[in-house]
Amino acid sequence: MIRAVRAVVLVGAVVALGMTRGGRDVAGAPAAASQPPAVETHLVIGYRPGASAAELIPVHARLGARVVRNIVAVHAAVVALPLDTAAAAGPLHTTLFGDEAAAAVTPGLRTAHSTLSPGVAAAALLYAALPAVAYVESDVPGGITAPSEPSAPPLLRAASNADSSLARTDPFAADQWHLDATRLPEAWSQSAADGIRIAIVDTGVQGDHPDLDSALQPGWNVRDGSNDTNDDHGHGTAVAGVVAAGVGNGVGVAGAAPGGRIVPVKALGADGTGWMSDVAAGIVWAADHDARVIVVAAGSRQPLRLLADAVAYAGRRGALVVAAAGNAGAQALDHPAADAGALAVGAVDIHGALTAWSNRGNGLRLVAPGDDILTTARDGYATASGTSLSAAIVGGVAALMIAQRPDAGPDEIARRLIATANDDAPAPGIVDAGAATAVEADDRSPAARLPGFWRKLPPAYLPAVHR
User: Is the Cβ–Cβ distance between 145 and 271 less than 8 Å?
Assistant: First the structure.
């Protein structure tokens, strides 16, 4: 999640990133809303392994529900309820499991001729009472957010040594303070991310950006099922530039993972918002299309069982999900950063201190620069701040490590990132790309520093059956 943006003058043109400041987009478009533009209410229906989404059809027909998508890999369907049903009550505030519905729904309510009062809860009960159903939950709106606090003045940059043999031809690399802060030039002398697929689940990526086009691979637009992943917001382009902008190509800025392949997955709209079920579907698609790193900047304060299942599925497919912690300055992480198996990343400033706006708390084991980061923007470059950029840096470093250790699983990569981090600063460990890619690096017993979910991922799509 990008916190705020300061436009910079580059080659005589003012460019900006389409993020929010003071309630308005710096490029002049409306600020991102807190809710997606859709007026529908979505339910997520999780069905049991061995069951089929076809077993939900009778309830779809009875309610007049429209199937938005089936995510077969994690045994879930997303449906949109009719507007009169959605208007009768608000969303569910908890996940409803099949055994609870079996006790709550009377036999008369299950019959085709019984009277059903409109309402989301009643619709959920009908689904949850089906023997095929494991859980039902309301879909969660989310997106990229700016913090409630005003932006602080940009800090002065320290002198840069980022003119390494790889980056010295990139005209703006010397202004990217995060390169030296994370020892990326040292890492580039030890590894390149050649061919490693890094999915960016976001607003898309500008397809013809001169610093990104050589790294771009075909992606997917979750929202309309097409391959049109062009960025109509700007956030995804910024994240992609931090991850894998060309290094040593004589253009613009340097990305963390030279040689990496960017796979754009468009899950958010032009206002930077969307359904978290779309983010979950994007994670699953990326894992199924050979992404080894999946960077997710979108988030929600509310958990979603589907999203947690998608993260776990990606891990079993060999992909590391690197997620932005969020920008509210809260003592809890956004989801999916808070979900088991995701590597949550917070933001530090140029002094190595956790920013006031970065989320923190249990589960935050790694941080990276996130304040005043120069990166790609639509049709140019801009500085931006947010945990999105921190997650992008870590995602790039992870790609460098995977290139060195192609057989390493995501849990091993996460352990090494945390174990080799610089923890001298008053924050969780700051990612150290030089140490993470050093062959002689000592792992320093990383398992002792990790939450239990990294030691062993869940063995099945869905947690224990509740019926």
Answer: no
As to burial, measured by CB atoms within 10 angstroms (0-12 exposed, 13-18 middle, 19+ buried), residue 442 is: exposed
Query: 365-416, pLDDT tens digit by residue?
Result: 999 999 999 999 999 999 999 999 999 999 999 999 999 999 999 999 999 9
pLDDT of 41? 87
The domain 2-32+145-455 belongs to what CATH superfamily?
Peptidase S8/S53 domain (3.40.50.200)
Q: Which of 75, 209, 233, 235 is catalytic?
A: 235
Distance CA 249, CA 59 (A): 56
- Edge-to-edge strands of the sheet including 366-369? 220-221, 261-266, 197-202, 293-296, 320-324, 343-348, 366-369
Residue in 164, 191, 388, 390 annotated catalytic: 388
Please indicate whether residue 235 is annotated as part of the active site: yes
217-232 pLDDT, tens digit per residue, is 999 999 999 999 999 9
How does 310-319 read in b/e, with b if 16+ C-beta sit within 10 Å? bbbbbbbbbb
Q: Which has the higher per-residue pLDDT, 370 or 11? A: 370
Domain ranges of the chain: 2-32+145-455, 41-141
Q: Which of 339, 295, 305, 249 is nearest to 144 (CA)?
A: 295
Residue with tokens 């931006």: 384
C-alpha closest to that of 112 among 65, 180, 58, 163: 58
202 catalytic per annotation: yes
Task: Confirm whether 390 is a catalytic residue.
Answer: no
Main-chain phi, psi angles of 239, to 5 degrees:
-65, -45
**Active site residue: 25, 170, 175, 202, which one?**
202
Please state, as a whole number, how many other Cβ atoms lie within 10 Å of the Cβ of residue 33: 13
CA distances from 225 to 66, 69, 245 (A): 16, 10, 26
